[in-house]
Write a structure and sequence with these properties.
Blueprint lengths: L1 H41 L5 H37 L2 H7 L4 H4 L1 H39 L9 E6 L2 E9 L2 E10 L10 E13 L3 H4 L1 E15 L6 H6 L2 H16 L3 E15 L1 H8 L8 H9 L2 H4 L8 H15 L1 H16 L4 H24 L8 H4 L2 H19 L1
Antiparallel strand pairs: 1-2, 2-3, 3-4, 4-5, 5-6
Length: about 400
């Protein structure tokens, strides 16, 4: 009889888990699309195939969250129904302990934890890296995609660019602020202002030149003159009187009207560097690093730099390494909590199980994410914080399970 019940209980939990994982994955992926890609899709920045590729890689990445949460939901629903129908009481009266009754569920939870370990350490990092690469390559392969109608582009080297509209290959009413080259200790200041009725983007081999050329038509440009400031060496060589005269002249120049040199031209090419974008692509994100990269980065960050990559901080890599291992135990811990919660709730309604799983899941994932928020603050020991939810919910589940066992 008990073996028959094992198959029955295991099948109920497995079917409910698969259904919950499917629903949660769809919701999570759609949320990511609306958050990150909807505006780019509507504006035509990304092609449809890039969106499909994003969805394809988002589902494996989402499994690291939805498998534990789906299992928790299934356990709450199944044990809530078993408790409400008094099936558990019948099994207990037949001489079966609660530990033996729940054994198939705990075995499934252990197997799910193994699956989550593989997802967290191999599948999710690869999927995250591919998601990031998909959006970045789509833009860099077509530099015109950088510019979106009625949006400011502020991630270029020394430029702020605003295009009022975009018609096919042409930008309309383009406004550009070009900054002065930054010097050591100085802030970049506006140097030139452009207004162009129409502009086209000439790219060439962007991967090689790392720049694009804006072909401005009906262009109006103003050059902004700034008072010349002395270098650090020149300041050290000044006497007290010379320093006072210099400061007075600088103050008068800054308080006076700026020097503006307007120029109008029918056609003007302007080179815009994409170096900042390429450097951003080279910046490694801990979510997309493989376990091997994390270990290499913690042991010797120079090894990643030699590959042309910019590694995160040691604290961030250490926290991510521990988070992946800790998060892999989520299925086992949440199942251990879900069993006594489901039994004591004694609800047959599906909505009650979903609400309870939502509350428990949010509390668990919030504690996990707290360590991620502090990953660049080594003084707060974020690599230990990511283990806190397992400790709290594990002890809570064992305590509740022990009390139910003694009834």
């Amino acid at each position: 009889m008990i073996r028959l019940f094992d198959r029955y209980l295991g099948r109920q939990v497995m079917v409910a888990t698969l259904f919950a994982v499917a629903v949660l994955s769809v919701v999570l992926v759609l949320g990511q699309i609306f958050k990150k890609l909807l505006d780019k899709l509507v504006d035509g920045v990304l092609p449809a195939e890039a969106i499909l590729k994003f969805i394809g890689y988002s589902f494996p990445w989402s499994l690291s969250f939805t498998v534990p949460w789906g299992l928790l939901t299934a356990v709450l629903l199944v044990f809530g129904r078993l408790s409400a129908d008094n099936e558990l009481i019948a099994l207990r009266m037949s001489g079966q302990s609660l530990r033996r009754i729940c054994a198939p569920v705990l075995v499934l939870a252990l197997m799910a934890s193994g699956l989550c370990f593989w997802i967290n350490t191999a599948v999710a990092p690869h999927s995250f890296a591919e998601i990031r690469k998909t959006t970045q390559q789509a833009v860099l392969s077509d530099p015109k995609a950088i510019f979106r109608p009625d949006s400011l582009v502020d991630d270029l080297n020394g430029f702020f660019i605003f295009a009022e509209s975009k018609e096919g290959e042409k930008l309309r009413n383009l406004q550009i602020i070009q900054l002065q080259p930054e010097r050591s200790g100085d802030r970049a200041r506006p140097a030139r202002y452009f207004f162009s009725r129409e502009a086209e983007v000439g790219s060439g081999d962007v991967a090689k030149t790392r720049e694009i050329t804006l072909l401005l038509r009906d262009n109006f440009m103003m050059g902004r003159g700034w008072p010349k400031e002395a270098s650090a060496e020149e300041l050290q060589a000044m006497s007290r009187e010379q320093m006072a005269q210099y400061n007075e002249r600088l103050r008068e120049d800054k308080e006076g009207m700026p020097e503006v040199d307007p120029v109008t031209s029918e056609f003007s090419p302007l080179s815009v560097s994409l170096k900042k974008m390429f450097e951003k692509n080279a910046q490694l994100r801990v979510n997309g690093m493989t376990m091997g990269q994390l270990r290499s980065g913690m042991a010797n960050p120079a090894s990643l730099v030699a590959e042309g990559l910019i590694p995160p901080s040691y604290s961030a890599m250490l926290t991510e390494f521990h988070r992946r291992i800790s998060f892999s135990f989520a299925c086992l811990v949440l199942a251990l909590v879900g069993i006594p919660f489901g039994i004591t709730a004694q609800r047959r309604e599906t909505s009650a199980g979903f609400v309870l799983s939502l509350v428990v899941g949010i509390c668990y994932f919030a504690l996990i994410m707290l360590g991620g928020l502090w990953q660049d603050s080594p003084g707060k020991y974020p690599h230990l914080w990511v283990w806190l939810p397992n400790v709290i919910f594990g002890l809570l589940g064992l305590g509740m399970f022990w009390r139910l066992q003694k009834r």
